[in-house]
Amino acid sequence: MKNMTRFSFLAAAVAVTSALSFSALAATATGTANATVLTPIAISAGTALNFGTLAGNATGGTVIVTAAGVRTPTGSVVVTGAAFTAGTFTVTGTGASTFAVTYPASFNVTSGANTMGVVVTGAAIGTLSGGTVSLPVGGTLTVGGNQAAGSYTGTYTMTVEYN
């Protein structure tokens, strides 16, 4: 029994010594976690992209309206009048955040059964200064040879998302 008591005492002493030496080698720290939730980004249409009044002939061409509002015909297309505009959209969200813009690959404007193709162009990215920014857009209208007369219209969808 005496040996057993010595053994128990010795085992307890080794356990205490081991615990003390291991605790001297351990350390702890507390970390923090953070999250920021952005205001949902939104986009709304403003001014319509308007190519104005034009005339073509047998060979056709294009009418380009830049996002800065400059109109240029190509091919045999002739533009008349001053009623043309770059389109605008308003993007809103969390101030100073950057966003990416996705344009449609192309869409059509129609007058009855007649169509012309449009490709929309503009900035691929932007920054929400103060939480709101006006996004100008331009485009290229493809006018076919002997394009039918008429008033052509169509719609397109723009997408924005935070970077």
Automatic annotation (TrEMBL):
<protein>
    <recommendedName>
        <fullName>DUF4402 domain-containing protein</fullName>
    </recommendedName>
</protein>
<dbReference type="Pfam" id="PF14352">
    <property type="entry name" value="DUF4402"/>
</dbReference>
<dbReference type="InterPro" id="IPR025514">
    <property type="entry name" value="DUF4402"/>
</dbReference>
<feature type="signal peptide">
    <location>
        <begin position="1"/>
        <end position="26"/>
    </location>
</feature>
<keyword id="KW-0732">Signal</keyword>
<dbReference type="InterPro" id="IPR006311">
    <property type="entry name" value="TAT_signal"/>
</dbReference>
